[in-house]
Every structure is written in C-alpha cells, then in structure tokens.
Amino acid sequence: MHLHKYEKIWMTFGIGSLVLFLAVLGVSAFAFGAQPPSHMHSVDSQNLEESVFSAPGVEQIDETTYRARLVAMAFGYDPGTIEVPVGSTVIFEITSSDVVHSFAIPGTNVNLMVTPGHVNMTEHTFTEPGEYLVLCNEYCGTGHQHMQMKIEVTP
Amino acid sequence: MMNQSNLAFKNNHYEPEIGVDPRDGKLAFYYVVIAFSAFLLGILGGLLQGLSRGGMIELPSWLGYYQILTAHGVLLALVFTTYIIYGFLYAGMSRTHGAFSPRLRKTGWIGFILTSLGTGMATVMILANEASVLYTFYAPLQAHYIFYFGLVFFIVGTWVTGIPMLVHYFKWKKTHPGEPAPLFGFMTTATILLWIIAGLGVAATVIGQMIPWALGMTDEINVVLSRSLFWYFGHPLVYFWIMPAYMVWYLVVPKVIGGKLFSASLAKLAFVLFLLFSIPVGFHHQLMESGISVFWKYVQTILTFVVVVPSLLTAFSIFATFEQTGRE
C-alpha cells in the first residue's frame, strides 16, 4: 500500500501523540495512583443486614481517619446525614440495596457508581468546614431527582 | 470550472452507473419513512422534556418526565439511527452492486418487518409508561417483558436484513472476478459485521438475563455483567453511526465536488480498523464502577483511543481529496 510522504508525516505525528498521551495516562495511573474507583469486593445485596452494612454509618479508625459505610437505595442514602470534623479523611464504602445508583459530591473528586452486589470505595479529605451535598447522578427511577444526602464537616 | 469537474467525473469510472432498482428503493424508502417518523416523535419528547425541565410547562399527570426522556432516547439514538442507516446502506448496495435477487429482497423485507414489530412493541411499552428505564435500560430497573421482547425482535430483525446485504456483496465479487469491488460494498460489509458482532452483547443480556428475570423465572440478575454486555454493544453502536457518515465523506463528497477519492486502500484500512477496534472497548463506559479491575479499564482505554488512527486516516484522505481536486 502506497503512503504519500505527507500522510506518513501526519500519521507518525498523530500516532506518536497518541502513544505519548497513553503513556502519560499509564504513568499517572500506575506510578502515581490516579485510578478510578474500582473496588473488587462483592456483597449479597438481598441480605445486607447480615453483612458489614448491617449498621451503616461512620466509625473512627484513627485520629483523623473515618470510615463511612453507606447504603444507597431508591431514593436516598442510609444514613441521610453524616458528620466529621474538618481535616478528616473519610474512606467511603458504598453499596446499593436495590438498583444502580451513584455517589457524587459536587466540587470534589468524589464520584463513583454504586452497583448492587458490589462495594465501591473512594476516599476524600475534607479541608473546609461546611455542609456538603451528595447527589445520585445515575437514573434510578421516578424519584431519582430527589436522591441526596448531606455530609456535615464541623469546624 | 464546469469542464474541469466533468473531466474528473469521466476519470472516475469504475463505479457502475446504474440507478436504484425501484423494488429495492421501496424497502429503502420505508426505512427512511420510519426513521423520520421516529425522529419527529423523538424530538417532540426532547422538546417537552426541555420545556418541563426549564419550568416553562408542567407535564400532565399522565405523562412522566422519565417516560418522555426514555422515548426521546430510544427513538433518536436507536430507532432513527438504525433505520436511516439501513435505508442508506440498502439503497446504496442496490445502486452500486445492482438489484437484489428476489430471494435476498424477500429476506430484507422479513428483517424489516421483524425490526419494525420490535420497534412497535418497545415504543408502545414506553408510551404506556411500562418501560421508563431510559435507553440504557440498566438492570435491575425493570421494564415490562414486552419491551425486552421488542428489543430482541429489533436486533434480530436488523441481522436478518443485514444478511442479504453481505450476500449481495460476496455474490458480486464472485461474478466479477479480478474486478475491484465497489468500495460501497466493502464499507457496508464492515458496518454490518460490526453491527452483528456488537448486537451479540445486547442480545445476550436481554435474552439470557433480562427476559427470564422480567418473566419471574429468576429473581436475581448479575448487574455488572449485564452492564458490561450492554456497553459491549453500546460503544460499537456509535461506530455504527459514524461509519455511514464516513461512507458519505469517502464516497459521496468526491462525487459532489467532481474529484476522486485520494486512496481506496487507505479507506478500506480505516474501515477494517473500525471493525477490529470496536470490539474490546466497552469498559470505558464503566470506569467509575466496582467489580472491574484498574488493569482492564486501562487496557480498554488504550484500545478505545486506537480509534484515533482510522480517524486521522479519514481526515487526511478528505483534505487530500479536496486538495487534489482543487489542483486539477
């Protein structure tokens, strides 16, 4: 197959840019840990009361670290409000008791899908006090637009 | 200027100069009619949705916001696109490869009827508010089982109409040994193959998971698996929309400007790459979810970006065609 000289230059430049882009992406993901939420634990979504999600809520792990186990459901989260002091790092562990939901805190990097049968995980350090709104951004039924919870970050 | 373009037309003569056989044109026409009917109904849904979201109107109590959102998505993203593409491919195959044989044309009609039956079933269920699950219909949101049967008829019907187009192309090659086959047929073949391979994913989740579950035969459904199968279909779906548009750029644009295609072999390469790299890319629609490891997400992200290569080939080819024609 004959390639015109200009086409060779064009394709070399284009494919070279692609390789560079994907290399940067790979290095940031695997060397610097910039990875999307991809937790691999599963859970029986029809028997959550017999799992670690039997009493959803916040527990303190060490001085500044908290674990928030949350259950997403149509159309809300359990619990509907959590409270942590400013400066804490919160490890979110979330599952769904019914359909596919999401968990997004606008203005932060927290945004993940919540699928029934799986536990998804992310963490975030709250450096500013205030009330943070959490929204579901995956259509989950007729009341989807009402699905939200609050995180109170106390000074 | 006129003289020059007429000259260029004469140099570009390997496409047989025949029209669309009226019997084939009829089927293509019906595809286009349904496409635009779905388009009108779909944009009406979009308009109502926008006005309601913007607070300008209040929807009547019997009409749900997510119901019209579903109608809008299914009618525009699935029905309009598939019908207009099939009308275009079917008419184009008749135009470039000669009339279909009566047997092939009959198969085409059977597929059209199956697809339309499926479209009707799904549309009625959506309009009856029995399937307000958006066009992604993620389980375990559940629609009426007739909606899922409609999806199966839709997909299988398109496969049935796809087969005569593939057979028509290979028959032409067999009866014209040594002649370069019209590019339209090569590109149609790649597009139909892509559609059939992609459809396997959605057919698997609908037939294997959703129908037994919607009928109450099973009470559980593997949600992440069904999402992966959906996106195995859902991403190639957009290549299925792009490829006919590329066919217009590669084949129609040179004719309109009175020039000829820069390189047929590069055009073929672009279509082969689209076909190959449409398969392992669906995970990039599931980057934010659990149950799929970061390694596989990265692998499929790389394979997704390979689509840059056929796109660059196409961009070069289009501008080279313009430049070449301008210099003649």
From TrEMBL, chain A:
Domain Cytochrome oxidase subunit II copper A binding residue range list: 63-155
A Gene Ontology term for the protein's cellular component: cell envelope
Pfam families attached to this UniProt entry: COX2
Name by which UniProt lists this protein: Cytochrome aa3 subunit 2
UniProt-listed InterPro entries: Ba3_CcO_II_C, CcO_II-like_C, Copper_CuA, Cupredoxin, NosZ/Cyto_c_oxidase_sub2
Main location: other
Function: Subunits I and II form the functional core of the enzyme complex. Electrons originating in cytochrome c are transferred via heme a and Cu(A) to the binuclear center formed by heme a3 and Cu(B).
Reaction catalyzed: 4 Fe(II)-[cytochrome c] + O2 + 8 H(+)(in) = 4 Fe(III)-[cytochrome c] + 2 H2O + 4 H(+)(out)
One function term, GO molecular function aspect: copper ion binding
Gene3D superfamilies named in the record: Cupredoxins - blue copper proteins
Organism from which the protein derives: Salipaludibacillus neizhouensis
Keyword Chloroplast: no
